[in-house]
Amino acid sequence: xxxxxxxxxxxxxxxxxxxxxxxxxxxxxxxxxxxxxxxxxxxxxxxxxxxxxxxxxxxxxxxxxxxxxxxxxxxxxxxxxxxxxxxxxxxxxxxxxxxxxxxxxxxxxxxxxxxxxxxxxxxxxxxxxxxxxxxxxxxxxxxxxxxxxxxxxxxxxxxxxxxxxxxxxxxxxxxxxxxxxxxxxxxxxxxxxxxxxxxxxxxxxxxxxxxxxxxxxxxxxxxxxxxxxxxxxxxxxxxxxxxxxxxxxxxxxxxxxxxxxxxxxxxxxxxxxxxxxxxxxxxxxxxxxxxxxxxxxxxxxxxxxxxxxxxxxxxxxxxxxxxxxxxxxxxxxxxxxxxxxxxxxxxxxxxxxxxxxxxxxxxxxxxxxxxxxxxxxxxxxxxxxxxxxxxxxxxxxxxxxxxxxxxxxxxxxxxxxxxxxxxxxxxxxxxxxxxxxxxxxxxxxxxxxxxxxxxxxxxxxxxxxxxxxxxxxxxxxxxxxxxxxxxxxxxxxxxxxxxxxxxxxxxxxxxxxxxxxxxxxxxxxxxxxxxxxxxxxxxxxxxxxxxxxxxxxxxxxxxxxxxxxxxxxxxxxxxxxxxxxxxxxxxxxxxxxxxxxx
Amino acid sequence: xxxxxxxxxxxxxxxxxxxxxxxxxxxxxxxxxxxxxxxxxxxxxxxxxxxxxxxxxxxxxxxxxxxxxxxxxxxxxxxxxxxxxxxxxxxxxxxxxxxxxxxxxxxxxxxxxxxxxxxxxxxxxxxxxxxxxxxxxxxxxxxxxxxxxxxxxxxxxxxxxxxxxxxxxxxxxxxxxxxxxxxxxxxxxxxxxxxxxxxxxxxxxxxxxxxxxxxxxxxxxxxxxxxxxxxxxxxxxxxxxxxxxxxxxxxxxxxxxxxxxxxxxxxxxxxxxxxxxxxxxxxxxxxxxxxxxxxxxxxxxxxxxxxxxxxxxxxxxxxxxxxxxxxxxxxxxxxxxxxxxxxxxxxxxxxxxxxxxxxxxxxxxxxxxxxxxxxxxxxxxxxxxxxxxxxxxxxxxxxxxxxxxxxxxxxxxxxxxxxxxxxxxxxxxxxxxxxxxxxxxxxxxxxxxxxxxxxxxxxxxxxxxxxxxxxxxxxxxxxxxxxxxxxxxxxxxxxxxxxxxxxxxxxxxxxxxxxxxxxxxxxxxxxxxxxxxxxxxxxxxxxxxxxxxxxxxxxxxxxxxxxxxxxxxxxxxxxxxxxxxxxxxxxxxxxxxxxxxx
DNA sequence: TTGTGGGCCCATGGCCGACAA
DNA sequence: TTGTCGGCCATGGGCCCACAA
Lengths: 598, 598
Hints:
Strand order of the largest sheet of chain A: 6-11-12-8-9-10-7
Distance between the termini of chain A: 51 Å
Oligomer: homodimer
Shape of chain A: elongated
């Protein structure tokens, strides 16, 4: 099985005309699967690449490493050399491989000088797929019901959809039926029995449907797309419900790390202005980190201020577009230490309809439209009238003297006060001891515990050092469980000790086990520390001690690296990890911090 | 599920006495699964480590790299710091993690001076497991029949085995039954319904058995072991039939590369005399590369000569020991370039019973016992009488002046004449061009083609340089196909050009795709070049050109690294490899050469 | 003594219309 | 118009003994 070239629209490379047509169909299918909100940049156009967002969406070891070595500006202007449409073999998830080359700084200079319209062509996004799909309306998308995915029955085809997309049946027959031959994004063939029966009569897919559901691991809530080309060829795609996409190995990240440029390679390519590749999954995250130049430049110097109202489009669960409104509650870099001046999700917002609690409270300027005045520049008088909440405005670019200090963000940033203030002081300690040398090496660990620690604090206090003599008791660390977020203590005293606590806001976190095959993969681990909020608990005998942990300042996600020590035989630790067979184990996890209340 | 510490025999670290007992049981179980021929060195003893054999058993990228950088003597004397018994999570395959430290050269010096009995204790192997299992005969091992593994029925327990290992049943009842609770090497619990029924009555495992077979992916021919500890606790293990163990990811090699010291790290540790770890699977290969010192030293300077007869033990398919006899047909280093003076599989042999064609025709001196005179040193007079074939004896240690020349091995080594003569002259060229820069970089490729090349030849000729202007036409490169061995030309002219040719001796070769998950893994590729033996063919348009290849002198295996160039859209190349999406692809493969006739 | 196969029961998959939202 | 349910049948898993090697 090979990966079908979804990009044959360019022609030239593809000799056979039939294949080219299939390519066009695939291109449409790709966009259909990607959803209405996804648009890709055109080949040859200029985009803005935000490494910050790229790292944020990259999970695991690769991201961890990149976060420390990535020394690139927050906004990189790139020329799009090539756009390749792809689909995950395992999940059918669509993604694009973008080949980019960093542009010279003159372009950026022009932008900073206010020449925002230079080289800005609003039409530069790749709307081929969209317009093409408008030209061929023989497509439908249905969110699967419980009955559709049950083993008990088949797939109920909406009448309009069947009449539109499937070859017509002879309705004069008692139970007209036919066999549908379809191909997915990979070119794999799927055959279904299409029958028109029942009382009242309806279109159903029976034989073959169950196998499809099983193979694609579809669950109710996922959506299937059927698409008929002009030549009558049927294609089908799937669009999964937003769910656990965080299986590292089923995501394009895998390729990213293994076969293409790793993040560190990207960093190198940026500095040398050579080409690099990005596997870009626009559905993986609501915030894009590849932005058309015109879109970015229009917003770069826009005078946002707290209180402004705005609109923003989301994709609803049934893959439809939905407009939401909200108000800007704060402005400020999400990571002023590492990415000062970045616009990546620099706007803090509150939504008018708070029904969806999980929605992000940080957006990037180019994601939103200002209410009332969409494209014009300075007509926010009307916006000011609507302002209901008055919060102190914060200057966007915060100076970072010495690279280690940072300013007070004001009250509007209070919710991230503690966590963003954390910084690493050389804690990346790997202890590869073993039975033979563990005793002599334990002194090193103790040194680490006493001397080095995580520095944290905020502008109200000086840095506090937390030693590592403290240890956490680890309870069951079992396969399939989830990792809980690091929570700040409930009392806001700056001297409180960070702790691991079982919380309600848990983020399914796939531990990145480098190259582990599917059978052995650790899908998630869970741990919880003391339940008392004030102080971490000392472990008794047998448990695993926390010898160190490590926090980074990456936006909206943080990372903890635990060095555990303890007998794997103990009841208090049990982990599907071969390295636990040794006396030490290291656990690295990345999880979101953005939803932590303080 | 965690990895049970199988090594609790040491005590001390493990607090609970019950767990310690379980550890003892696991140790026995480990040895039972490993088979009767496997013995591990004792902690603290001295062994001889043969990097050559280690590399030979390590497949893939890691081995490829190690083969070029490993700059260690062929025999390294090491102190065993620790021995950890392990079992593969995926396959239950047993292996051991050995922690070794290279000893000073004085020990080796003593050996070379003939003090073969110094520090040589024949009792130094770890026979705890064996003797313990002799002390607890409550164990049985049964090779699974078709009925045992069928979904139709359960597991038929041999009567003696059931009476020996299982708790007694009340035979007065109509159909006595009980539930057996067993644990495997990982501590995972398996419950079976044990019933005594049928006409005639017999012991059966019914409920639970099928799940076990499915989960462990047992097939008929595999064997299961049941073992009852003194406390009545039941353990079970499996011993798979020799089969496709060549799934890279299911082998301990994975850990080797990822979590522990890689081979290159071992090379470093050897030079600095620091500790290194080896994941040692004694069942993976018939030849051990970790040898007890006494065993090695007894044979190191032994005056082997062609014609000597010997005995050797093998494990038969039903896990029993079997003695085979043969005659030495030649003596010589398997790789005089890289490992001069190595004793690793330096004896060429012919077996008396040629029923098993696949048996190796090279053995190491310590693997065999000389017929008639086993332990005494110089009584090979009787052996000489038996000599039937007279071949010229070859001196074992061949001088390698300048590190690049080599001597004629004599007629007995003729079969490896051409291939062993090859050597690399700095060919490891990786071309990571891309669309943007491929044109300007092509000159580099041409430079490579004209200037650098593989040097090959033998003692009869001077070195011949083969340029890389030549190119091979690649036909279908498809998933699932196999790679064919590199064959020397059929005419023995030393100026012949090495070529890729479709041959009868193909070796299933797993391409090592670093960290690829199971679905995407390239299981094998095939290629064939021109069918005319004298000259490689020039490719026409569209095909893939061979820009370079690379041969190493590793024993019994060789390696070719191909740098391909060509459009992946062309009909002549199609590969399940995403990197082919670029203009270049690199293919690396390792395969055996030992069975190539010339 | 034990490997294989047939008999039998039952759980599940899967196709159907009934019914109602 | 279409989601869910009960009816119904086919298939296969799994427990039983018969028979024979």
